[in-house]
Design brief:
Two copies of one chain form a homodimer.
Chain A lengths: L9 H12 L3 E5 L8 H4 L4 H13 L5 E4 L1 H5 L4 H14 L6 E6 L3 H14 L4 E4 L18 E7 L6 H4 L7 H12 L5 E5 L4 H11 L4 E3 L9 H8 L7 E5 L1 H4 L2 H7 L1 H4 L2 H24 L2
Parallel strand pairs in A: 1-2, 1-8, 3-4, 4-5, 5-6, 6-7, 7-8
Helix pairs in contact in A: 3-5, 3-14, 8-9, 9-10, 10-14
Chain lengths: 290, 290
């Protein structure tokens, strides 16, 4: 684990990362073995090496990285996940790493999941599922400088029957209100998917300037302008716009743009990240007005 | 992985395990390093060896085992978890292993969690969190012979504000109704905590004879007679009564009962398992009446 000499809150570290990088883009690291470029596909350490190459290629355009646990766990590659995170900390110590693991259990067990996220993997933050209530979140909040991203409104279709009911007090807004209470130390974020901009707007109103982690851009089809309009905080920041598959596996797009460069997966991913970064920043400027 | 020559449904395998063992007791394997007996406490493979010793000591009285993922993951001991499961399959091939991991994510990621549970760990079933809806469950249902236990009403206090609202159509009952739909191949169970027997009774009415996984007996204080009355199916079975801490760390109880035997942790755990097994079966007989 890194020495944490002067521990500032997770929100402060995130704000610093937004300022330093000039970016709200968070690249999700979801390595799918069958889709990896050929040098990585057969290599035992292919998941790690591919992710590290993506990190190096895209770091100039992102404020944070979000490795996804299941993609490593499926093949028993937990050590590779730990190495990817360590690689990011060494090369880009100011870019937070959000472990996407969606853990959630009763308090005594949640303490072990917190240890998994913050000690075993040394992540800066971790995604959590709140269905078991506050006690499933609390043990994570006792780690100074670390943060959580609590599922609020997820980006997938077929989740509304649990998340948006009852109409007068939908679960996702009750979670948003609870998260505001849990956030005593500047360490709670919410996951608010890009595919439901109207609900994102209601979450933003409920939580003030709490950071929102927003997946669902790119492969899942969220509209960038709508979600920025709905989700930016008063300072034109406050969001982690997360893209995974559209950055990691952009070959189709890239072929159309520039055949020569697209043959190099890292250059293609870098170009996809740069393009999304520019698109986000141009929209923020346009939304800010003259 | 074990060869699955003639694959029967997970429910059929569970019914066979109930019949063969004459027990509804499921022992949860939640190894806490600081609470392990001294030979295991310092040993690198202590989690595995302690769990295997508990399995051997208690197997006569249980129908299934439920290892808990976080307790291993917190110290990077995923391989020990896999070895515990493999040990159970070898010695007690007819006792299902339920991996308690409470995973839940969008469909493309859920497929990797299913691979983690059923291929990497070779578990027979896995606990799932349904907050992301059906697509987070579906990939798990495509593994023949395997099962899922979907969180419905959890045993912890502080979960009612999400699980039991709104009153006229509480989330836990909507999940129970959905689980009945998902259960096309005899592979879906529900997690229904022992601490809320009235809600357990409503779940039983909703799902017919679907098996229920019921934690919260023992350390969490659920009342055994009430929950059996509420949760047994029409055949006097249908439940996995899960106990972890009260079986793994029973020294206080045991000292009072029998000082000589209690010094041997395995004998104490065996005695705790036998006592709970007997208590369950005596209550089932009493409830069945003359």
């Amino acid at each position: 684990m890194r020495p944490m000499v002067a521990v500032s809150s997770f929100h402060d570290r995130l704000r610093q990362a937004w300022a330093d990088s000039g970016s709200l883009l968070c690249v999700g690291l979801d390595p799918v073995r069958s889709r990896l470029p050929s040098p990585f596909k057969q290599a035992p350490s292919g998941l790690r090496d591919f992710c590290c190459a993506i990190v190096e290629a895209t770091a100039d355009f992102v404020c944070a990285f979000k490795p996804q646990a299941a993609h490593f766990a499926a093949e028993g590659a937990e050590d590779q996940l730990a190495e990817v995170i360590s690689h990011i900390h060494k090369g880009w110590p100011d870019k937070p790493v959000i472990l996407d693991a969606k853990r959630g259990d009763i308090g005594s067990t949640a303490a072990f999941y917190a240890k998994e996220a913050f000690e075993r993997y040394d992540a800066d933050a971790v995604t959590l599922n709140p269905y078991l209530g506050e006690e499933s979140v609390r043990p994570f909040l006792q780690h100074p400088g670390r943060g959580v991203a609590v599922l609020c409104r997820t980006s997938n279709p077929g989740s509304a029957w649990l998340q948006t009911t009852p109409e007068e007090a939908p679960a996702y807004l009750r979670i948003a209100a609870a998260a505001r209470e849990w956030n005593r130390d500047g360490n709670v974020m919410l996951v608010a998917g890009a595919t439901y901009p109207q609900e994102l707007a209601r979450i933003r109103i409920t939580v003030g300037d709490m950071p929102l982690l927003t997946p669902g851009i790119g492969a899942q089809g969220g509209d960038l302008e709508q979600i920025l309009r709905a989700g930016l905080d008063a300072h034109g920041r406050g969001m982690l716009i997360s893209a995974s598959r559209s950055i990691l596996y952009p070959e189709v797009d890239m072929d159309a743009v520039c055949v020569g460069v697209a043959r190099d997966f890292a250059a293609a991913s870098r170009m996809a990240a740069e393009r999304l970064h520019d698109e986000i920043n141009n929209l923020i400027l346009a939304l800010a007005g003259p």
